[in-house]
Write a structure and sequence with these properties.
Blueprint (H helix, E strand, L loop, with lengths): L1 E2 L20 E6 L10 E6 L8 E7 L2 E7 L12 H5 L15 E4 L2 E4 L2 H18 L5 E5 L5 H15 L4 E3 L1 H4 L1 H11 L9 H5 L2 E5 L3 H4 L1 H11 L6 E5 L5 H4 L3 E3 L6 H14 L5 H7 E2 L1 H8 L4 H8 L3 H13 L3 E5 L1 H4 L4 H15 L9 E3 L6 H7 L14 H11 L15 H10 L4 E5 L3 H4 L3 H8 L5 E6 L11 E4 L8 E4 L4 E5 L12 H12 L15 H12 L11 H4 L5 E2 L41 H7 L5 E2 L18 E6 L15 H6 L5 E3 L1 H6 L7 E5 L4 E8 L6 E5 L5 E3 L5 E3 L26 E9 L35 E6 L15
The structure holds ligand MGD (2 copies), iron/sulfur cluster (SF4) and molybdenum atom (MO).
The site of iron/sulfur cluster has 14 residues, from α1 and α8.
InterPro entries: Asp_de-COase-like_dom_sf (IPR009010), CT_Nitrate-R-NapA-like (IPR041957), MoPterin_dinucl-bd_dom (IPR006657), Mopterin_OxRdtase (IPR006656), Mopterin_OxRdtase_4Fe-4S_dom (IPR006963), Prok_molybdopt-oxidoreductase (IPR050123)
Family: Belongs to the prokaryotic molybdopterin-containing oxidoreductase family. NasA/NapA/NarB subfamily.
Keywords: 4Fe-4S, Iron, Iron-sulfur, Metal-binding, Molybdenum, Nitrate assimilation, Oxidoreductase
């Protein structure tokens, strides 16, 4: 038994390069429950991050009473992280769930029934469609529903209503991942695989705190690091994360300066001849523009702009340039920072320059964050066209019209899909009067919350919120719909490296809560949406019908699911797409033959100018004759939207802690996790704390031009001049056994963030703003920031209090079974030859 709050990654199982990662099965059962008490184990996968760990749910007396990792799953080989162990089942199977629909009467939300609630939605929807047309409607969904739910929602929006105003919180999350892959390779779809961790010689983590945000993946890395011939690690992050602590080179860049660093790294590859000219000639295009753009970025200019050591930049470039096999991962430190798409494409460029794509150990993981973000992107509930189709390609639009048997004119394709920030702007301006929010909590997670609150409260807006709990957002709704959560419904979803899992229903949803799929189907039926032949637009009976329809939508597309069935996903491991007749067990890594998805007839986009976001358009794109070559895309560096000045001298950045998931609706209901990180904090460096007369635990007010927060200080390993706050803490302190109490202190990081986005991916800039700091009071004790992670107290100076370590105690004991079986084979081992 191991305390998995204190020991985040569990016990080491070292292995060497090219060996298979050993199995370790992690298990937790509710207090007082023994293995022999468990009536059934139900197959699923974890939905608390993009890693997609295979998981079995323990069921007793109609309740979820624990979980264990699936030994045979190619993703996790049996392991689970703290959220999988302690939040997956406790965060849903909970006392204070929404169990009945709520409707607003005389300004207050009151309990109602489904008929009344749906009737209100449908009647408002019909009136608006009649009087104002489809542009009055907006949908803001998630990266946490199931594939089947997105596909239904996408068709409702595109072929039922015909609105381009559809997006998800995936815009805040992985829009840049999708965009960077589309721009460089022609389509979304992860080139690399987790197996590359087993096979690489060097790993670069760009703005990715994998140690806290994909803990099971990091356990795999740690097992390589503690084994023979360990990989060399390079970390790009302004904080001293656990990734940074294991790195040979830590580039603690100033927040907002990623692209300058990337230009410097690319330039070093050119200067030192660390490039594969044959690969470049055969499989890529546009290299000259890249070379010209990076030319000014000498080591010294990078050092000056990014605030790092020139020698460290040189060493990092040398590791990239001279290692046989390099694996790169990219996440929010890049996606939510300035020039997100250009910086993320630069990672692709590094790999293209050396031909390190599609070979063992040479992966690119433009990471996802949410467990099902990939499926929203595939299905197009984020506004994209289903099946990675190109909205600018009339043939692609017609394919969907044929598939759905609707007139192609109803499918919005006259302009790009409306991105989330623009949807909220249209609500603000009053043109969107009907907004349906599912499985996301924008009143905590969107930038510049004072503005978002005003928008959600707009008198012209009819707001539908579909959630498990009465969240900060749901409190603004006109109608609240109670949803069935994970374990209470069946469906599939796809993780970062394209692995598709089936999640089976284990228990009944509480009260009258319904699956999101049932709700979308009900809405479609009540709205009377039909096909050209007059039959109902959506006539599916359940999730498996939707999945079968979805398979047809993906036939011949990069995300080909035609070889997958629910039955194939039962019993064993998840399966990575594309999976079809040619590849019945899926494909481990894409682009092995150096042929990319850039052909004009096939590609998902004709691309953009990365500096301005202007579309390239079909004529220019076709004239470029990409013909299956990858495209070097780049842009000149520009400073962040808001940089420090005299009034606001600090760079503010935000992110996560290992113990919480987003706005904590699930993790705050897990006693183990909530106890480990119960309240907000802000991180400052030793030098900055000293110069402001601050010590651990002192209460500060952090203020931007848009708002302020109050929280205790943790003096941590963050770089000087930067301040970090976790974005998890909103208005509510969730009770773990029913009820939540308001927390009247402003403490959400997004009180301070700015309404700006990347010109190409439209992903909001959640990771840089300018702030000032003021001491409000002496601390009454230490801050409650975890000591086990990036927020651990600085090792010297500044921190003159003794800080108690974060531990889980008896409630956090998990069972680990070492190597009970051989590790699973990756789906198509022959690819390794
Ligand atoms: N425990 C936990 N795990 C999660 C989640 C969670 O909420 N909690 N959420 C999941 C989701 S949806 C996502 S999207 C992922 C996110 O996973 P990550 O991207 O790994 O997490 P973040 O903490 O948002 O950001 C990563 C790092 O970016 C750094 N950073 C900030 N500004 C900059 C910058 O300008 N440049 C660079 N290079 N780095 C910068 C921060 O210091 C931080 O350590 O995590 C997933 N996993
Ligand atoms: N400052 C700052 N802001 C950020 C970020 C950051 O790093 N910094 N990260 C951004 C990122 S990457 C993300 S992904 C977002 C996340 O932000 P949100 O999406 O707002 O966060 P969650 O708390 O995951 O919200 C999901 C909601 O869905 C509900 N839910 C869960 N399962 C189901 C289901 O099956 N059906 C329904 N209907 N509801 C369900 C949950 O109860 C919860 O209320 O935050 C973004 N905001
Ligand atoms: S790594 Fe992610 S998917 Fe795996 S158990 Fe942890 S939260 Fe769940
Ligand atoms: Mo995310």
């Amino acid at each position: 038994m191991v305390d998995r709050i204190a020991e985040i990654w569990g016990t080491r199982t070292p292995y060497a390069r090219d060996e298979r990662w050993p199995v370790r099965v992690d298990q937790v059962l509710a207090e007082g429950i023994h293995e022999s008490d468990v009536e059934r184990w139900v197959q699923s996968a974890c939905v608390l991050c993009s890693n997609g760990c295979g998981i079995d749910i323990a069921v007793k007396d109609g309740s979820m009473v624990g979980v264990r990792g699936r030994a045979m799953d190619i993703v996790n080989h049996g392991r689970l992280g703290p959220k999988g162990l302690f939040a997956s089942w406790q965060g849903v199977d909970n006392k204070d769930r929404l169990t009945r629909p709520l409707v607003r009467e005389n300004g207050v939300l009151v309990e109602s029934d489904w008929d009344t609630a749906m009737q209100r939605i449908v009647s408002r929807s019909k009136t608006l469609l009649e009087n104002k047309g489809p542009l009055s409607h907006g949908f803001y969904t998630s990266g946490q529903l199931f594939l089947e739910e997105y596909y239904a929602q996408a068709i409702v929006g595109k072929a039922g209503i015909g609105t381009p105003h559809m997006d998800g919180n995936t815009r805040l999350c992985t829009a840049t991942a999708a965009t960077a892959m589309k721009e460089s390779f022609g389509s979304d779809g992860q080139p690399g695989s987790y197996v590359d961790i087993d096979e690489c010689d060097a790993m670069f983590l760009f703005g990715h705190n994998m140690a806290e945000t994909q803990t099971v993946l990091w356990a795999r890395v740690l097992d390589r690091i503690t084994g023979p011939d360990k990989p060399r690690i390079v970390c790009v992050d302004p904080r001293l994360t656990d990734v940074a602590r294991h790195a040979e080179v830590h580039l603690a860049v100033r927040p907002g300066t990623n692209l300058a660093l990337m230009h410097g790294l690319v330039r070093e590859l050119f200067t030192n001849g660390w490039i594969d000219q044959d690969y470049i000639d055969q499989h890529t295009m546009n290299m000259d523009e890249l070379r010209t753009t990076v030319e000014p970025w000498t080591l010294d200019s990078v050092a000056e702009t990014c605030g790092v050591d020139a020698e460290d930049v040189r060493r990092a470039a040398e590791i990239f340039g001279t290692s046989d096999r390099v694996l790169s991962t990219v996440l929010q430190g890049f996606y939510q920072s300035s020039q997100a798409t250009a910086s993320s494409c630069a990672v692709n460029n590094l790999h293209m320059l050396r031909g390190l794509i599609g070979r063992p150990g040479c992966g690119i993981l433009q990471m996802n964050g949410q467990p099902t973000a990939q499926n929203n992107r595939e299905c197009g509930a984020d506004g994209d066209l289903s099946g990675f189709r190109n909205w600018e390609n009339p043939e692609h639009v017609q394919e969907l019209a044929d598939l759905w048997n609707v007139d192609s004119v109803i499918i919005p394709h006259w302009s790009p899909p409306t991105h989330a920030m623009q949807i909220f702007r249209y609500v603000e301006q009053g043109s969107i009067e009907f907004l349906w929010i599912s499985a996301t909590n924008p009143a905590v997670s969107m930038p510049q919350l004072p503005r978002i609150r005003d928008i959600l409260a707009s008198s012209s807006l009819f707001l539908v919120v579909q959630d498990l709990y009465l969240t900060e957002t749901a409190r603004y709704a006109d109608v609240v719909l109670p949803a069935a959560g994970w374990g209470e419904k069946t469906g599939t979803f796809t993780n970062v490296n394209r692995t598709v899992h089936l999640s089976e229903q284990a228990i009944d949803p509480p009260g009258e809560a319904r699956s999101d799929l049932d709700t979308f189907l009900d809405y479609s039926r009540r709205m009377g949406f039909t096909r050209l032949d007059g039959t109902p637009l959506l006539d599916w009976k359940g999730p498996e019908d939707v999945f079968n329809a979805w398979k047809e939508c993906t036939r011949g597309r990069p995300c080909d699911y035609t070889g997958i069935t629910y039955d194939k996903l039962r019993g064993g491991s998840g399966v990575p797409w594309p999976c079809n007749e040619d590849h019945p067990d899926g494909v481990v890594r894409l682009y092995r033959d150096g042929v990319f998805a850039t052909d004009p007839e096939y590609c998902e986009t004709y691309g953009h100018d990365l500096l301005t976001g202007a579309t390239i358009g079909p004529e220019t794109y076709k004239a470029m004759k990409p013909a299956g070559r990858a495209i070097f895309k780049t842009a000149p560096y520009q400073p962040a939207h808001e940089t420090p000045d005299e009034d606001y001298p600090f760079r503010f950045t935000t992110g996560r802690t290992v113990y919480h998931f987003h706005t904590r609706t699930k993790t705050a209901r897990s006693p183990q996790l909530n106890h480990a990180a119960p309240d907000a904090w802000v991180e400052m460096s030793v030098n900055d704390a000293e110069s402001h007369g601050l010590i651990e635990g002192d209460i500060v007010r952090v203020e931007s031009r848009r708002g302020h927060i109050t929280a205790p200080v943790r003096v941590s390993g963050i770089r000087d001049g930067s301040i970090f706050a976790p974005f998890h803490y909103g208005y509510w302190d969730e009770g773990t056994s029913g009820g939540a109490a308001p927390n009247t202190r402003y403490r959400a990081a997004n009180e301070l963030t700015i309404t700006e986005w990347d010109p190409v991916s439209k992903q909001p800039v959640l990771k840089n703003a300018a702030v000032r700091v003021e001491k409000i009071a002496d601390g009454v004790g230490q801050s409650l920031a975890p000591t086990t992670t990036a927020s651990r107290p600085a090792e010297r100076g500044g921190n003159r209090k003794h800080v108690l370590p974060t531990v889980g105690g008896p409630a956090a004991q998990a069972k680990e079974t070492m190597a009970p079986v051989d590790p699973p084979m990756v789906a198509t081992e022959e690819e390794h030859s």
